[in-house]
Design brief:
- The chain is of the alpha/beta class.
- The chain has two domains: about 160 residues, Periplasmic binding protein-like II (D-Maltodextrin-Binding Protein, domain 2, 3-Layer(aba) Sandwich), CATH 3.40.190; about 200 residues, 3-Layer(aba) Sandwich (D-Maltodextrin-Binding Protein, domain 2), CATH 3.40.190.10.
- It is built from 17 helices and 14 strands.
- Strands 2-1-3-13-6 form a five-stranded mixed β-sheet.
- Helix 7 crosses helix 16 and helix 16 runs antiparallel to helix 17.
- The chain starts with about 40 loop residues before the first strand and ends with a helix.
């Protein structure tokens, strides 16, 4: 995946948050300033998802924008991630959504920009947003040639692990498991200390769904990268897929094997934040950049890294794609001010600041960066070899499929659903 028109990397700088080489993306030559209203002040609102009580990169950047533009007031609305998609859709339908909205590419998530734009809720964006769309993924950002979301990142959807936490738990010489046998042995070792290998927000469908996708990378997509297209063509179904059956069976086995913290089925996102920052869990199924936020609350020796979930007899494979975008509400009365903010977000300094704060890789030049010594070092070879696929939920046809997966995994954890029921419900949602 390459980026057109906006790539420039400086190898000798400092990628502050992750000690990687500094990234500078070619952008506008000067900072965009909103046109003043009659009162000399511009104001707009900004809603974004948050998964913990740590300060969001979006909040930090909004504050910085107001510092640089004293005549601008941004009202920020951080919204819990587990209800974010539902909340945004309700607000858009009611006509009281924010001017700027954090969205995701594609149509498979409740906040997916294609579904929202198709419903008339989003404003088409300009050339700057179009220039940031990764080549080959235009269908996740565009309708009839118009772009509705400005990409921000390149996210790894796998496991974030704290090697320091293993030491804090008394597990010496900890190495990330490369096989399922090694993984279950690590689960036993962590459980013996009163902790767990994984911290799971079992009551939050976005987290249970992400876990299932991370595991499906090696069970489904490593063997069949075109599986989603086959499902779209009607050549297969979730219920007929041995790979998806194996994925969900693995989750049941992890649960039965004591790999999650006690009470994981009722855990929220705070269970992950507390487990990883407090040293009672070693890893979690969270977006790669979340490690940076959690590291702020963890001791320096936490030593986070992005690791692939062990392949079951196959080659390692991960999920990786642009996963966060900014969009403008079509009903906004502050479109000029909102557009100026998005232009500012695309500039060199803000791009660099976003990556320092979020830890997410730059969508424009991640393949060219020296990631030695960063949280991404364990997956460098996988990125270089193309051993990854986009998050399936980005390309699924509607949010109900991902909802059925996330809620279905919750049912597997509590014993209220079977694998066949979950997969059948996903097929039903697909065909809606």
């Amino acid at each position: 995946m390459t980026q057109h028109r906006r790539t420039r990397v400086l190898r000798n700088g400092i990628f502050a948050a992750t000690a990687a080489g500094a990234l500078i993306l070619a952008g506008c030559s000067s900072s965009a300033t909103p046109e003043e209203s009659d009162g000399g002040e511009q104001a707009f609102s900004f809603t974004f998802a948050t998964s913990n009580n740590l300060e969001s990169p979006y909040q930090t950047l909004a504050d910085l924008y107001m510092e640089e533009n004293p005549d601008v007031t941004i009202t920020t609305n951080p919204t819990p991630n587990d209800k974010y998609g539902e909340t945004i859709r309700t607000q858009l339908q009611a006509g009281n959504a924010s001017d700027v909205i954090q969205t995701t590419p594609g149509s498979g998530d409740a906040r997916g920009l294609i579904g929202l734009a198709d419903a008339g809720f989003l404003e088409p964006l300009g050339d700057t947003a179009a220039s940031l769309v990764p080549e080959g993924s235009e269908s996740l950002f565009e309708i009839d040639g118009k772009v509705y979301g400005q990409p921000l990142d390149f996210t790894i959807g796998s496991v974030v692990a704290s090697f320091g936490n293993a030491g804090r738990m008394g597990i010496t010489d900890f190495a990330w498991p490369e096989s399922m046998d090694d993984l279950y042995a690590a689960c036993d070792a962590a459980a013996a200390t009163g902790g767990s290998l994984f911290a799971l927000a079992g009551a939050a469908p976005p987290n249970t769904g992400l876990m299932a996708q991370a595991i499906s990378a090696t069970r489904v997509y490593a063997q069949d990268p075109d599986w989603n297209q086959q499902r779209l063509d009607g050549d297969t179904t979730f219920a007929d897929s041995d790979g998806w059956k194996d994925t969900l069976q693995t989750i049941i086995d992890l649960n039965d094997g004591g790999c999650f913290q006690a009470g994981s089925e009722g855990g929220g996102f705070d269970a992950i934040t507390n487990g990883l920052s407090g040293g009672t869990s070693i890893g979690g199924f969270i977006p790669s950049g979340a490690a940076i936020e959690i590291a702020k609350a963890a001791p320096p020796e936490a030593a986070f890294a992005v690791e692939p979930f062990p392949a079951d007899g196959g080659a390692p494979y991960i999920m990786a794609s642009s996963n966060y975008t900014l969009s403008i509400n079509a009903a906004s009365k502050a479109k000029d001010a909102s557009a100026a903010f998005l232009e500012w977000m695309a500039e060199d300094a803000q791009q660099q600041k976003y990556y320092e704060l979020s830890g997410e890789l730059p969508v424009s030049a991640y393949k060219d960066m020296d990631l030695t010594g960063t949280i991404y070092e364990p997956v460098v070879d996988l990125l270089a070899s193309g051993s990854y696929t986009s998050l399936p939920s980005n390309v699924w046809p509607n949010p109900s499929v991902y909802d059925a997966l996330g809620v279905g995994v919750q049912g597997l954890l509590t014993g209220q659903k079977t694998i066949d029921q979950v997969l059948t419900e996903m097929d039903t949602a697909w065909d809606q």
